[in-house]
Amino acid sequence: MFNNMNGSMFGGSGTPRGNFGNTNPLDDMLSYSSSAQNSNEPMIPLSSINKLKYNSDTPKGEPTFSVGTLLTLVGAAFLAATLVVGTYYNFQSDIKDVKYDFENRTKDIKYKLNNIETKIDDIDLKEIKNQIENIKNNINDLNNDLSKYNLKTINKNLEQINKDIKDIKIKVDFNRENILSNKKELNKK
Hints:
Blueprint: H1 25-38, H2 46-55, H3 67-123, H4 126-146, H5 151-188
Helix pairs in contact: 3-4, 3-5, 4-5
């Protein structure tokens, strides 16, 4: 069936075409290439052998990171986190200062209101009581404005509240004696 037991089954020159029992395909190619040189047959290009050799070792698309790149990324993330946390705590500190100032100013207002209410209880001026309730509501509104950090609005409203309190105090002090005397007259009747 074969012309030569060591050759091709199609009647070649009898020159072996590689060690086909070897399990390494690269060795088979190199062996075939050297036999082709001796038999004037076309050789396998070296570029094909190199491709086979290197492509089998290095998987494609695998990213490589150096230690320097990794440290840079970690440092950038840490810096960004530090800036965010620092900004947040500065903002919280500012709000605490504003709230402290607001509470001190409103304590004085509430003290004045309590004094006026004590006098009003004696003379029972409903209109002035309503005004005081409105002022208290305004203070609550201002407290809500603190969360919006709107200082101009807060200061403007506090000034208006102080003016309203002065007006009420003037009314109360001015009318108190007259009202008390009128009450006495009414009680006599």
